[in-house]
Every structure is written in structure tokens, then in C-alpha cells.
Amino acid sequence: MSIEFSPSLPFRVSQVKQWDIEADVLIVGFGAAGACAAIEASRAGASVVLFEAASGNGGTSALSGGEIYLGGNGGTPAQRAAGFTDETGDLFRYLMMAGGPDADEAKARLYAEESLSHYEWLVAQGVPYKNTFVPGKLVEPATDDCLIWSGSEQAWPFSEQAKPCPRGHTPQWTGWGGGRLLMDILAARVEELKVDVRYDSRVLALVADDANRVHGLVVRSDGVTRFARARNGVILCAGGFVMNRDMVRKHAPHLMRSDDPIGTPGDDGTGIRLGMSVGGAAIHMNEAFSSLPFYAPESLVKGIIVNERGQRFINEDAYHGRIGHHILQQLGDRIYLLVDSETYEPPIELLRVGIAAAGDTWEEVEQDLGMTAGTLTHTVETYNHHAAQGQDPLFHKAAAWLKPLTTGPFVALDCRIDYAFYPHFTLGGLDTLPNGQVLTDQREPVPGLYAAGRTACGLPRWGGGYSSGMSLADATFFGRQAGKHAATPGA
Amino acid sequence: MSIEFSPSLPFRVSQVKQWDIEADVLIVGFGAAGACAAIEASRAGASVVLFEAASGNGGTSALSGGEIYLGGNGGTPAQRAAGFTDETGDLFRYLMMAGGPDADEAKARLYAEESLSHYEWLVAQGVPYKNTFVPGKLVEPATDDCLIWSGSEQAWPFSEQAKPCPRGHTPQWTGWGGGRLLMDILAARVEELKVDVRYDSRVLALVADDANRVHGLVVRSDGVTRFARARNGVILCAGGFVMNRDMVRKHAPHLMRSDDPIGTPGDDGTGIRLGMSVGGAAIHMNEAFSSLPFYAPESLVKGIIVNERGQRFINEDAYHGRIGHHILQQLGDRIYLLVDSETYEPPIELLRVGIAAAGDTWEEVEQDLGMTAGTLTHTVETYNHHAAQGQDPLFHKAAAWLKPLTTGPFVALDCRIDYAFYPHFTLGGLDTLPNGQVLTDQREPVPGLYAAGRTACGLPRWGGGYSSGMSLADATFFGRQAGKHAATPGA
């Protein structure tokens, strides 16, 4: 058979001569979203086949810190142990702000209401949480501790509309990389439930009828092309498209300013393309997490970030992804983090941030950087003047991070966009209902098709509001919803 | 027959019982792109049916100024009469910069090479040009003159890489609104060529086979649904999607900051949806022309534009659409245009820009605006200091527009995003080849399908580089290419 298949062209069900595989639910991709979908579909009594293009499970979830954004309903054990009460309304308002100008209210509401029970579900699967809190500003705990401030909760303008609470929950795992632990645990559950997992299995196309109802998929493994029938539905959990640089160029070309995509080779947009091939609408395709993870050392948060004209443009205590989002909007590649000798600490090596200039006065630094006289110095003077009073009238950085930068020598750290570490991944994807159903551009469900994780456009959909743990929160929680609904679509 | 049709779902050719209409080429939309496609297809010997949803021709092209971006090959008669020599290489480099981070090099090259002959073609159709030049900064000539500076040619950074030349060509028509004249002329040609034009004809869906090859379309008029066969191809020239606010929210939500979409009700995204229904890739869907057309009076260009923190962020002599693009990226809705008594002239009423504050000193203005002391004043002082030397080291505004703002009283004009006039239209659309063929996400042509005008993502595809006349240049020129290729697809 020499048919050419494409993720962008559904194979017509009328052309299928025989189904080689049959199940109630077919899942594409064995990252966190796919695992959770498989667990819930299987627990609901559905037969499930899970296809993974790679030779092992994990996807990009396994490369992550394993952090999940959780809270509400008074708080998780870790939140409560640390003395925080997290109201559902505050979580909801934060999620709405984080979602940006087209936040998905239905998803934000459902997640806010059920986040605590989602935490309990994760614990029931075996995910260990130490219920300890690490205060301060950091990307991930270096220890096996649990709870951190992982977003912009304490930062303007978020802090004004939603009572701040730390919500980043990291599994008990020493050091970065708890995502692998999380995936091992979820994968063990998938195995326990006897889900039929097929590795090295690349999905080539969906199988659909003329009305774009999805009936199954075409998958290739061991050199053989097989037709798999989904009695209830196909769930696409195949990641985003950050590794498909052509696709990035066509939808989010500003990301090409950086050479640090985060993902596996599987994040090539296939999941999104499959969904679009049957009329699924891909939305917010220009949005991304794009970060300069410059803390810890948290002392650097007391510095100020300026563009090549010496202007500040964002409160530096915002989440590093929000800062990165604004950095990529600046004219010019030169970005500096300014600190004095009291606030300076060497950035982590990963960041590729060296010292661009140093001097005994800010005038010297300004000169060394070749900036127009009076620009950077005025920015620093204005900042210092108000910081001395515990204020930042221009960007509303919180008082805790305000310290006049007055103790020389002074340093400008070189965060240029074309050299420093700006990790990024895409947030655009298929529009879905909270139950995971993929929607057309008229927001009507595509029968038989679901999506979750970064194949979907979920809770996180705006670079200016992303917070650590949101992508896994979205992938695990809405992966579960998709699995449940696909198992009993009529329910 | 009670079949439900959708622009997002192709009707299967195998289900067509009879063709009610047949032609070599079917064109959807009678704006400039559709008219030019019809003219060329018809001249090449093809039979053409042109469907227009409205009761008359013109589309959004007829609402425009009729300005077309033209030049290269030494220059048009108007350019040469005014003493400008416009080299093809300069036009090409300008188009590449204007196209932004994913400029379409093939289209830019073809257009640069053939722009002068396109001018001659327009003249041959009967479009009158007075071949006179109006210097200075303006949106459209108020007179019946022809040539204006219609982009950022003389502004940084464009002026550094492409020798500046004015390229906005307006038909001989007194006052704004030359687009109606342009359309009347093109429509007369369409009529002369006996193209079969069907008004009040709404295209409901494309007709395609299982491989997404396009065979025709389904159209509704006079209460009757008809099947129209395209022996060679369908050309989608149905405008953009700015009037579909749901679609805008899902793809370009920053535009929702303004309530001034430019278009006809037809700019509802139907054309793009039709193309996507058969696998056409829609790209750069977040990009838009979004402008604050604050000049003329050109004296205002000598003012400076600041955000609500009193910071400048762009050279004010850039094209108003480039400035608007950057305005919509600012944090906060408050935007001010600062002028002194020598540079002040009342903005046009259309702009909805009043005086936010005035004072005998910039300190007073700063205070009146409730800005942090020393911010706006420092911005003005820095600007004035360098302007006095004919320099703008921060934003590289050209010397001609640099004048210290030192003669009181001083005025801050209120350009707030949520109130002032920010006209906008979408630039994202179907990816196409220079010959108009619609491309899949793998950049393979969708057989039998073409697009032009704002249904396609053409030369203009980046808000930061748009220049007046580019959309009509793209629509007319690439509409022609689509018509020619569809007439003789094998040629």
C-alpha cells in the first residue's frame, strides 16, 4: 500500500478496509496529559490504547520540574501547613488574569473549584508531596521541598485583584527535574490499569467521515501502517509545536529571537495539525511562555531590568516568564539587569549572563554600555529615590524587593536576547471545552475528538500571565476531564 | 434540501448531484483583489463567475483611500517627476523590513521587480494619476494629487537599509476616499470583459474531494442554494476577519483594546475559513494594521509620544501604523502626544484626541497628568537637549522632525487607547505562493484553490512594518497573479 498520509488530511473512514486495532478510547501521546486521560478513561471502564511516538513515556512533562499549580478551597495541605488560606475566588481571579485578554472563563472556574480535589487525586495516584514551603523567589526548589511562589501572585497587578498565595507544588524529589518522578508515577498507574501502550508508534492521520466526525486514526509502528478505531473518541495529547521552527516562524516569529526552545522532538505540532485537519480551531498560536529565569539567586530580583535605551519596562518581581514576555517585545536585543554590590550574586551558569559593564558610579556603567548620557542614570536615580521610601510608583514592584542600588561597584548583567538563555514553549493550540472536546471555529464540538496539554489552548494562553506549574496543571487536570468524557461521552 | 453548509466544512464533490453553474474560474469577493483576479483570468481567456455577498462591488477597498504602494525600476512617473529615483533593490529591502520577522521573500522580490509594470497596468485599466507629489507627513492627500510618503521610508530603522522614496500613489480624486474611484474603474473593466458577476451571493462552502482538491463551491442567492463548478480553480478574495470579533478575540485579542475595526460586514473571516476547511494554513493571525493616524497636521510629528509612565517608545516620525502597533504593546491605556505652543495644531476631529493637560512648564503638565515627578520632565529634557543638536540618540527620529519643545504653554494630547481613534484591520490569513495558490501547513499547494487580498497573508503581515498602500498593492498585484494562474494553471 503506497497511500501517503498526512496529519493535515483526515483519512476517510469509507476507505478503511479493516480496523487493525479497536478500543473505546485512543490516546495520542504519553506525557502528563495522555497519562491522566488514560487513567481516567480506563478507570471509567473504557478500553484504552495509548500511542507514543517515542520509545518511552514522559514527553516534555518528564523534562519539567514536575511543578503543578494548585490551590483554592481553603488550600492544599502544603499551603495550610505554611499558614496560607487559599480561597477559590482568589485562585479563579488569578487564573483569569493569567489567561490574559481572552482567558477561558469556563476552564478557570472549573479548575479553581476542583483544584484541591485534583491535588488529592494526584496524591492518590502516588505523587509524594512533602508539604513544606520554600519562601522567596526561585524557579524550582533545589531540595525535596514542595511549595513555592511560582508565578506573579505577589506582584503587581495580580496582587491587587487576587489575594496572593503560593501555588507551585513540586513532588518530593531532590533537585530540579521532578517531572520525571511525576511521569514515572503516572506511568505506573497507567500500567497497573493495563492500558494498552504502544511505543514507537507515530500517528499519521486521523480517520474521519465527510462531516469530520472522528472514527479513529492511522498509526505506523514496526514498519507497518495500521488502522485503529476509536469507538468513543480520540484524545490528542501530543504536545505543542515549539520544535517545529517553520511553524514557530509562521505563528510566533518573535520566538525566533531566542534559540532555546523547550520540548522533545515530539513537540512538532503534529497534534495540533491532526485536530485542525478535521476542523478543530487552533487559537492564540502566537502566544508562548518565554522566560529569562534570572532568579534565584533571589537577590537579583532587587536589581532592575532595562532595555537598550536604559528604560525599565516591567516590575522585576513579576514571574520570570512575564518578564521574558515583555523583554521579547522590546526594540533591540540588548537587555541589562542592573545590580549594586549589595544585591549582586552570580547568576546561574545556565542563564548565559555575564557582566556587560561595571563601574564605581552608574555614570561609568552608562558610559561603558554606550548609552546616552543621563538615561540609565536617570532610571536608576528615579528607582533609588522611590525605593528608599519603599515605593515604585512606575512599575509597582513590591516593597520587599525595593532597595536603592547605591552601593558601588555597580554592575550591568548582559541579558541580550540573542545570547542569554530564553527558554520558551508554545501556548497556542486547539480550542477545547473544559471536558476536552475539540471545538470548531464556531465553538461546536468536533464529534469524537478531544485534546489536552499543549496540543490544546488551555488555561495558560498568554505569555504575560503564565506561571510555573500552569502547563502541568492544565495538562493533568484537563487530560483527566478528556479521559472521563471520552469514556462515557453520553453521560 | 435541508443540508447544513459551513465555510469550515467542505462539501464532498461525490455528493454533488448537479452543477448549476460552471466556469473555468470562480472568484469569491468583488473588492480590489477579486476585481483584478477577474480581469486577468478573463483576459487570459478563462470564463469567470464572480460572487459577491453584498449588493454592490467594492468591499473594503472601496472604503479606503485607494492608495497603492508602487515603485522600483527607477521609479513611477510620479516619483520621477518629483525627482526621486526608486531602485528595485531599495523597494525590495523596504518590503522585507516591512514584512517583519517572517517576511515573504518570494512575494517581496516579485513585487519589487514588477511594481512599475503593475503601475502601468493600473493606468491601462484607466486609473488616473496626476503625477504630482505632496511632501510632508499626511495620511492621504486632501487634494487630487498623487504621490505621498505613506510609510516609514524616511524613518529609522528603515531609512538605514533602504534608500527612502515616497511610494504611496493615490488616484486623481479630490479628498479622501479614492478607493471608491479605484473600484469603479476596476469594476467597469470587469463589466467590459463580460465577467459573470453575481451579487447578493453568499458562498456557503467549498466543494472538494477527499484529498482536499477544490472542485467548486456552494453559493446561496435569491433564496436558492446552487452548486458551482470551477474547472480550474476557486479564488478567495473575501477580505479579512476584523469584523468577526469572536475571531479577533481568539487570534488577536490585543485589538480588542480598540473599538475601531475598519472593514465591511464581509470581513467576517469567511474567506479564511473556507481556505482552512480544505487544509489551507492560516498564518500570522495575530498581526494587524493598528494605527493612531495623528498626522496631518504634520506639525504634531514634532511632538513626542509617551506612555503612562512618561516614557517614549518609538520614533514619532515612523508611519502612524507602526506607532499604533507599538502603542498597543504598552502597559496601560494612557498614551500622550506632547507638544509645545510652536508645534501644537488641533488634531483632526476623527482622532478623538482632546487636551489632557496643559501648563506653562512641563512640570505642570507632568503634575496635571498625575505622573511621577521627574519622569515626563526627564523624557522631555532629554529629548529637547538632543533635539537642539538635531539628534535623537534614543529613537533616531530624523532631524527634520526634531525641535526642542521649549515654548510654553505645553500640551499633552490625550490618545488613550480605550477612547481615541485606533483604526485596525487584520493582516493574518491564508499562506499563498506568489501565484496565489493556497498552501497547506507543509507549504504544498491546495489543488484548485487560490487566495488574494486580506483573505491571504500577503506582503503586509506585520503591524510594525505596515505602510499605507501595501494592502491594496498586495490585493491588486497578487489578485492579478491568482487570476492569471487560475486561468492557465498548467502554464
Can you tell me the CATH architecture of the largest domain in chain A? Answer: 3-Layer(bba) Sandwich
Helix and strand content put the structural class of chain A at: alpha/beta
**Biggest interface, chains and residue tallies:** A-B, 50 and 50 residues
**What is the CATH homology-level superfamily of the largest domain in chain A?**
FAD/NAD(P)-binding domain
Report the span from N to C terminus of chain A: 40 Å
Domains of chain A (count): 3
Assembly state (oligomeric): homodimer
Shape, principal axes of CA atoms of chain A: elongated
Name of the CATH class of the largest domain in chain A:
Alpha Beta
Secondary structure tally, helices of chain A: 12
The CATH topology of the largest domain in chain A is what? FAD/NAD(P)-binding domain
* Estimated radius of gyration of chain A: 23 Å
Major sheet of chain A, described briefly? 9 strands, mixed
